[in-house]
Amino acid sequence: MSWFFLIIGLTLTLWDIFFIAKTLQGNIIKRFVFILSGVTVIKVIYPSYMLITYKETLISLIIGLVFLITHLLIAKGIKLRFSDINVGIIKTCILIYFIELPAEELLYRGILLIPLINMTNPVIAIFISSVLFGALHIKTWNNKFVWIGSFLLAMTCAISVVISKSIWTAIIIHNLNDFGYLTLVNKRDIFTHRSANYK
């Protein structure tokens, strides 16, 4: 069964890395496919990975806050000002933190990592899922620091899933990391200032 889900995961990963959606609607549809596939795979292989305890939540929050604070220290503070907050930033945050990042975690840590853990040892599983996650960011970002940071984030999220046996630890860590980098530092707003990827 793990082989079957791994093939699905690798197929979706290749779709994610090599076929960047040209429209926002196309990206949202792709992310919903990842979410539904990830939840289905986890429910079939290890339904307990959909659960999280208070202790795991607290540890995930602490790790995620370390990533967030690191971004703020590197950027020398929060760049987002109250006057910057508009409907575009709010809609962008909803898309990123409730659709985009859970979809990435369910794909790279759910559909890929969990079957790989069943088929190999955790170190190999963590490395493979992290390299594939890093490949996505090499394709979508033209910044070597983002590439390195994405690989470190991927390793941290994968290790958190292996240790906690919960996909939610990775989702929490990833959300806090990206909230620091994309929202507080870079003021990401894909609605007011359309990115080059979307028309």
UniProtKB/TrEMBL annotation:
Listed GO MF terms: peptidase activity
Superkingdom of origin organism: Bacteria
One annotated GO biological process: proteolysis
UniProt name for this protein: Membrane protease YdiL (CAAX protease family)
Transmembrane segments: 6-25, 32-52, 58-75, 82-99, 111-133, 145-173
Keyword terms: Hydrolase, Membrane, Protease, Transmembrane, Transmembrane helix
Domain CAAX prenyl protease 2/Lysostaphin resistance protein A-like: 92-179
Pfam families: Rce1-like (PF02517)
